[in-house]
Please model this.
Amino acid sequence: MTSTNPKRVLISGASGMVGRALQAALRDQGHEVIVLIRGAVRSGVATWDPSRGQLDLSAAGRVDAVIHLAGDNISSGRWTNKKKAAIVDSRVLGTELLAQHFASCTFKPEAFISASAIGIYGDRGDELIDENSPLGKGFLADVCQQWEGATAAVEQAGIRVVHARIGVILDTDGGALSKLLPPFRFGIGGKLGSGRQWMSWIGLADVVASLQFLLQESSIDGAVNLVAPAAVSNRQLAKTLARALHRPSFLPLPSFAVRWLFGEMGQELLLSGARVEPSVLLAQGYDFRHAQLEPLLVQQLVRQ
Model:
């Protein structure tokens, strides 16, 4: 479907799971997509190297909107001090570099949509969380707060800024679901730890569609939770996935084993959680493609 208001959109992190899907969706709507590529300056290509403070957008021309998705993968490997520094720098340095550039442009973009994560809320037990809830504590919460704070320059320049706080993405092409499938296919999946921790999930199709929605809805700014409206506990996720695969779910991984295998990453990503609601999207009339977990899982598994 072609957009009635086509834009020239710059995307960072375009080679990732979300970036690839978003590029295709935007082009299908008639938008022009400019991909920001990491590496040395090349003629006719928008390039950057945030670690060196290098940014060359001379090939980009006028930019109507920025969708900034770039950031080091938080679930690839244990969180050593070096890994944690890379997680922080890949988010903060890149965001500051883009924000400062566009804040100083003569022709400023209409919108700067910057990825963030629901990790900003920390481990919150059964508390119901929305965009107005207090922020949390812990490494991920601190990273996300620095990440969002790095957009200060474009906010001060009067550009509309959206912090897209993305939940746990469930898709067989990447993200959490692709990692969960192998043990569950063999019938050895189960809850992690107590299984009571909340998982605020979202399908890839809804991540892409909600980013498109935020691009078009000029009245929306600030924090927006990109999660489905029906968060589940880790125990519920395990049972639902096992049922969709027609497999048992009886082999839990105790908390001590998660911590031993994955360290701090396991504690924050697997044993912690928050029950997050997409209050802004719902209030603005966004129509979820997948509001319930089981239909999403069934659809994803059919693709395999």
